[in-house]
Amino acid sequence: MTRFGRSVLLVAVPLLVGVTASAQVQHQEHHPPRSTSRYIQVLEDPSRDAWQQPEKVIATLGLKPGERVADLGAGPGYFTLRFARAVGPTGHVYGVDVSREMLDYLEKQARTQHLTNIQPVLAEPHDPKLAPASVDMIFICDTLHHISDRAMYFPLLMRALKPGGRLVNIDFYKRPLPVGPPVEMKIPQAEMIREAEAAGFHLIQKYKFLKYQYFVVFKR
User: Fold this and answer.
1) For residues 55 and 5, which has the higher predicted lDDT (pLDDT)?
2) 19-219, superfamily in CATH?
3) Strand 161-172 vs strand 213-219: parallel, antiparallel, or unpaired?
4) 216 - beta bridge partners?
5) Which of 22, 133, 187, 190 is the one with CA 20 to 30 A from 35?
Protein backbone atom coordinates (compact mmCIF):
# COMPACT_ATOMS: atom_id res chain seq x y z
CA MET A 1 0.00 0.00 0.00
CA THR A 2 1.89 3.06 1.10
CA ARG A 3 -0.50 4.79 -1.21
CA PHE A 4 -0.78 1.82 -1.93
CA GLY A 5 1.49 -1.08 -2.45
CA ARG A 6 4.82 -2.64 -2.85
CA SER A 7 5.28 -5.30 -5.51
CA VAL A 8 1.78 -4.95 -6.95
CA LEU A 9 0.47 -1.69 -5.57
CA LEU A 10 3.39 0.64 -5.33
CA VAL A 11 2.74 4.14 -4.15
CA ALA A 12 1.27 6.81 -6.34
CA VAL A 13 1.98 9.72 -4.10
CA PRO A 14 2.77 12.55 -6.50
CA LEU A 15 6.15 14.11 -6.49
CA LEU A 16 7.60 17.37 -7.55
CA VAL A 17 10.29 18.12 -10.08
CA GLY A 18 14.00 17.36 -9.97
CA VAL A 19 15.29 14.47 -7.88
CA THR A 20 11.85 13.97 -6.36
CA ALA A 21 10.31 13.55 -9.77
CA SER A 22 12.96 11.02 -10.67
CA ALA A 23 12.07 8.96 -7.62
CA GLN A 24 8.40 9.16 -8.55
CA VAL A 25 9.04 7.71 -11.99
CA GLN A 26 10.71 4.75 -10.36
CA HIS A 27 7.73 4.18 -8.06
CA GLN A 28 5.21 4.44 -10.86
CA GLU A 29 7.06 1.80 -12.84
CA HIS A 30 6.62 -0.54 -9.85
CA HIS A 31 10.28 -0.54 -8.88
CA PRO A 32 11.01 -0.55 -5.15
CA PRO A 33 12.59 2.59 -3.66
CA ARG A 34 16.29 2.50 -3.00
CA SER A 35 15.59 2.62 0.72
CA THR A 36 12.59 3.03 3.00
CA SER A 37 14.12 6.14 4.55
CA ARG A 38 14.49 7.76 1.11
CA TYR A 39 10.96 6.76 0.22
CA ILE A 40 9.61 8.35 3.40
CA GLN A 41 11.43 11.58 2.57
CA VAL A 42 9.70 11.64 -0.79
CA LEU A 43 6.26 10.91 0.66
CA GLU A 44 6.60 13.52 3.38
CA ASP A 45 8.20 16.25 1.29
CA PRO A 46 6.80 19.49 2.80
CA SER A 47 6.28 20.91 -0.70
CA ARG A 48 3.50 18.35 -1.18
CA ASP A 49 1.25 20.31 1.17
CA ALA A 50 0.88 23.17 -1.32
CA TRP A 51 -1.11 21.08 -3.81
CA GLN A 52 -2.39 18.25 -1.59
CA GLN A 53 -3.94 20.71 0.89
CA PRO A 54 -4.26 18.09 3.63
CA GLU A 55 -5.75 20.40 6.24
CA LYS A 56 -8.46 21.56 3.85
CA VAL A 57 -9.18 17.95 2.86
CA ILE A 58 -9.59 17.00 6.53
CA ALA A 59 -11.81 20.01 7.25
CA THR A 60 -13.96 19.27 4.20
CA LEU A 61 -14.62 15.73 5.41
CA GLY A 62 -16.06 17.06 8.66
CA LEU A 63 -14.95 14.17 10.84
CA LYS A 64 -16.53 13.93 14.28
CA PRO A 65 -14.93 12.94 17.57
CA GLY A 66 -15.25 9.23 18.13
CA GLU A 67 -15.44 8.22 14.46
CA ARG A 68 -13.46 5.30 13.09
CA VAL A 69 -11.43 5.86 9.92
CA ALA A 70 -9.37 3.57 7.70
CA ASP A 71 -6.57 5.18 5.71
CA LEU A 72 -5.73 2.78 2.87
CA GLY A 73 -2.15 3.15 1.73
CA ALA A 74 -1.21 4.92 4.94
CA GLY A 75 2.53 4.85 4.30
CA PRO A 76 4.41 6.95 6.86
CA GLY A 77 1.17 8.55 8.03
CA TYR A 78 0.76 11.72 5.97
CA PHE A 79 -3.03 11.61 6.39
CA THR A 80 -3.25 8.98 9.15
CA LEU A 81 -1.77 11.23 11.82
CA ARG A 82 -4.06 14.08 10.81
CA PHE A 83 -7.10 11.82 10.97
CA ALA A 84 -6.09 10.71 14.45
CA ARG A 85 -6.13 14.29 15.67
CA ALA A 86 -9.43 14.98 13.88
CA VAL A 87 -11.36 12.11 15.49
CA GLY A 88 -9.82 12.67 18.92
CA PRO A 89 -8.90 10.21 21.63
CA THR A 90 -12.32 8.55 21.53
CA GLY A 91 -11.95 7.88 17.80
CA HIS A 92 -9.84 5.29 16.05
CA VAL A 93 -7.75 5.30 12.88
CA TYR A 94 -6.56 2.22 11.03
CA GLY A 95 -3.36 2.88 9.10
CA VAL A 96 -3.58 0.21 6.39
CA ASP A 97 -0.52 -0.72 4.36
CA VAL A 98 1.22 -3.77 2.92
CA SER A 99 4.67 -2.58 4.03
CA ARG A 100 5.71 -3.57 7.54
CA GLU A 101 8.57 -1.04 7.43
CA MET A 102 6.18 1.79 6.70
CA LEU A 103 3.84 0.69 9.47
CA ASP A 104 6.76 0.53 11.91
CA TYR A 105 7.62 4.11 10.98
CA LEU A 106 3.97 5.14 11.37
CA GLU A 107 3.91 3.63 14.87
CA LYS A 108 7.02 5.61 15.83
CA GLN A 109 5.44 8.79 14.50
CA ALA A 110 2.28 8.15 16.50
CA ARG A 111 4.28 7.65 19.70
CA THR A 112 6.33 10.79 19.07
CA GLN A 113 3.14 12.81 18.61
CA HIS A 114 1.44 11.13 21.59
CA LEU A 115 -1.37 9.73 19.46
CA THR A 116 -2.78 6.58 21.02
CA ASN A 117 -5.73 6.05 18.67
CA ILE A 118 -3.87 4.69 15.63
CA GLN A 119 -3.81 0.98 14.82
CA PRO A 120 -1.47 -0.18 12.03
CA VAL A 121 -2.97 -2.87 9.82
CA LEU A 122 -0.68 -5.05 7.72
CA ALA A 123 -2.81 -5.74 4.64
CA GLU A 124 -2.38 -7.87 1.57
CA PRO A 125 -2.34 -6.38 -1.93
CA HIS A 126 -5.89 -7.53 -2.64
CA ASP A 127 -7.32 -7.48 0.88
CA PRO A 128 -7.36 -4.45 3.22
CA LYS A 129 -7.84 -6.74 6.24
CA LEU A 130 -10.63 -4.64 7.70
CA ALA A 131 -13.32 -6.30 9.79
CA PRO A 132 -16.95 -6.13 8.65
CA ALA A 133 -18.82 -2.94 9.63
CA SER A 134 -15.75 -1.65 11.47
CA VAL A 135 -15.30 1.90 10.12
CA ASP A 136 -17.28 5.07 9.45
CA MET A 137 -15.04 6.20 6.61
CA ILE A 138 -12.52 4.62 4.25
CA PHE A 139 -10.06 7.12 2.80
CA ILE A 140 -7.93 6.40 -0.27
CA CYS A 141 -5.49 8.93 -1.69
CA ASP A 142 -3.30 8.42 -4.76
CA THR A 143 -3.67 4.67 -4.43
CA LEU A 144 -6.71 3.20 -6.13
CA HIS A 145 -5.16 3.23 -9.60
CA HIS A 146 -2.66 0.64 -8.38
CA ILE A 147 -5.35 -1.89 -7.48
CA SER A 148 -5.79 -4.05 -10.54
CA ASP A 149 -8.90 -6.05 -9.62
CA ARG A 150 -11.09 -3.28 -8.29
CA ALA A 151 -14.28 -5.21 -9.08
CA MET A 152 -13.23 -7.64 -6.35
CA TYR A 153 -11.76 -5.00 -4.06
CA PHE A 154 -14.71 -2.60 -3.84
CA PRO A 155 -16.98 -5.22 -2.20
CA LEU A 156 -14.36 -5.67 0.54
CA LEU A 157 -14.53 -1.95 1.20
CA MET A 158 -18.32 -2.05 1.20
CA ARG A 159 -18.23 -4.85 3.76
CA ALA A 160 -15.85 -2.93 6.04
CA LEU A 161 -18.05 0.18 6.21
CA LYS A 162 -20.76 0.66 8.79
CA PRO A 163 -24.26 1.37 7.41
CA GLY A 164 -24.21 4.91 6.04
CA GLY A 165 -20.41 4.94 6.04
CA ARG A 166 -18.39 6.90 3.48
CA LEU A 167 -15.83 5.91 0.88
CA VAL A 168 -13.52 8.78 -0.09
CA ASN A 169 -11.19 8.67 -3.07
CA ILE A 170 -8.64 11.25 -4.15
CA ASP A 171 -6.65 10.46 -7.27
CA PHE A 172 -5.00 12.13 -10.22
CA TYR A 173 -6.82 13.46 -13.24
CA LYS A 174 -6.06 11.41 -16.31
CA ARG A 175 -3.96 13.97 -18.12
CA PRO A 176 -0.32 15.04 -18.12
CA LEU A 177 0.56 16.64 -14.79
CA PRO A 178 3.77 17.81 -13.11
CA VAL A 179 3.12 15.30 -10.31
CA GLY A 180 1.80 11.76 -10.09
CA PRO A 181 2.10 8.64 -12.22
CA PRO A 182 2.21 8.37 -16.01
CA VAL A 183 -1.07 9.16 -17.75
CA GLU A 184 -1.62 5.54 -18.79
CA MET A 185 -1.72 4.44 -15.15
CA LYS A 186 -4.42 6.87 -14.09
CA ILE A 187 -8.13 6.09 -13.74
CA PRO A 188 -10.46 8.66 -15.30
CA GLN A 189 -12.82 10.12 -12.73
CA ALA A 190 -15.92 8.92 -14.60
CA GLU A 191 -14.57 5.39 -14.80
CA MET A 192 -13.75 5.32 -11.10
CA ILE A 193 -17.26 6.50 -10.26
CA ARG A 194 -18.82 3.85 -12.49
CA GLU A 195 -16.78 1.12 -10.81
CA ALA A 196 -17.75 2.25 -7.33
CA GLU A 197 -21.41 2.57 -8.24
CA ALA A 198 -21.37 -0.90 -9.80
CA ALA A 199 -20.28 -2.21 -6.38
CA GLY A 200 -23.24 -0.50 -4.71
CA PHE A 201 -21.72 2.80 -3.62
CA HIS A 202 -23.72 6.00 -4.11
CA LEU A 203 -21.88 9.17 -5.16
CA ILE A 204 -22.82 12.05 -2.86
CA GLN A 205 -20.21 14.74 -3.49
CA LYS A 206 -17.44 15.95 -5.78
CA TYR A 207 -14.95 18.56 -4.64
CA LYS A 208 -12.87 20.52 -7.12
CA PHE A 209 -10.42 22.56 -5.06
CA LEU A 210 -7.43 20.23 -5.58
CA LYS A 211 -5.29 21.30 -8.52
CA TYR A 212 -4.18 17.89 -9.78
CA GLN A 213 -6.67 15.44 -8.27
CA TYR A 214 -10.35 14.65 -8.23
CA PHE A 215 -11.93 14.24 -4.80
CA VAL A 216 -15.10 12.17 -4.63
CA VAL A 217 -17.21 10.90 -1.75
CA PHE A 218 -19.58 7.94 -1.78
CA LYS A 219 -21.97 6.47 0.75
CA ARG A 220 -22.45 2.82 1.49
Assistant:
1) 55
2) Vaccinia Virus protein VP39 (3.40.50.150)
3) antiparallel
4) 169, 206
5) 187
End-to-end Cα spacing for the chain: 23
User: Which is nearest to 154 in space by CA: 162, 146, 144?
Assistant: 144
Confidence check: pLDDT of 26 > 80: no
3-state helix, strand, coil in the chain (%, to 5): 35, 25, 40
Q: How far apart are CA 135 and CA 67, in angstroms?
A: 8
Instruction: Please indicate whether residue 26 or residue 55 has the higher confidence score (pLDDT).
Output: 55
Contact partners, residue 111, CB within 8 Å, separation at least 6: none
| Cα(123)–Cα(6) distance, integer angstroms | 11
CB atoms near residue 218 (< 10 Å): 24
Q: What is the pLDDT of residue 160?
A: 98
Question: 28, 4, 33: which is closest to 170 by C-alpha?
Answer: 4
Which of 201, 213, 217, 78 has its CA nearest to residue 142? 213
Contacts for 56-64: CB closer than 8 Å, 24+ residues apart? 56/209, 57/170, 57/210, 57/215, 58/82, 58/83, 58/86, 60/207, 60/209, 60/215, 61/86, 61/137, 61/139, 61/166, 61/168, 61/217, 63/87, 63/91, 63/137
Q: Cα dist. 49→27, 45, 96 in Å? A: 20, 8, 21
Tell me the average pLDDT across 173-194.
Answer: 95
Three-state DSSP state, 220: coil
Helix (H, G, I), strand (E, B) or coil at 187: coil
